[in-house]
Amino acid sequence: MNRKNALFTLLLILIAVFAAQFFNIGKDSEEYRVMRVADGDSFSLMKNRTEVKVRLYGIDCPERKQPFNKKAGKFTRTMLQKGKIELTKVDLDRYGRTVAWVFVDSLNLNEELVRRGLAWHYKHHSNDTSLARLEKNARLNKTGLWSDPHPIAPWEFRKQKR
């Protein structure tokens, strides 16, 4: 290839890269919108006119009628409205929800709920060491739900209600 053809090819490549960046070609340009927050670890988002039901991976927030349920839900609602939402899908659960790590800007919502004592590390479904460490620290510092002398894990609470 002669020098003139190489320059022309390079110019075409640069134009294509610029156009792709400028017009978001091949990218999903619409961001997630919050539709509904059921509780601290479950909510619905809308993207490209499609509803996405989400369950946060590796954590379990207090159920209705448990202490800190409302605080966990309020925290999740507030955080989801603070920035760009990104999902890292892990699985689909038996209810068809996307089980995911959720990031708001660069903040990991799953971890933040555990750090603030608003959720348990759901060890039955996750062996994530960062969630385990965050729960241990929240327990030691009596943060959030760990300020209760006898907190009942949501999975135990659900068993009692059956």
Number of helices: 5
Number of domains: 2
Terminal Cα span = 75 Å
The value of Rg in angstroms is 21 Å
Percent strand: 25-35%
CATH class of the largest domain: Mainly Beta
Q: What class, by secondary structure content?
A: alpha+beta
Number of strands: 8
Low-pLDDT ranges: 24-28
CATH topology of the largest domain: OB fold (Dihydrolipoamide Acetyltransferase, E2P)
Inertia-based shape: elongated
Provide an overview of this structure.
The chain has 162 residues and is of the alpha+beta class. It has two domains: 28 residues; 129 residues, OB fold (Dihydrolipoamide Acetyltransferase, E2P) (Beta Barrel), CATH 2.40.50. The strands form two sheets. Strands 1, 2, 3, 5, 6 and 7 form a six-stranded mixed beta sheet that branches. Strands 4-8 form a two-stranded antiparallel sheet. A hairpin with a 5-residue loop joins strand 5 and strand 6. Helix 3 packs parallel to helix 4. The protein is elongated, with a radius of gyration of 21 Å.
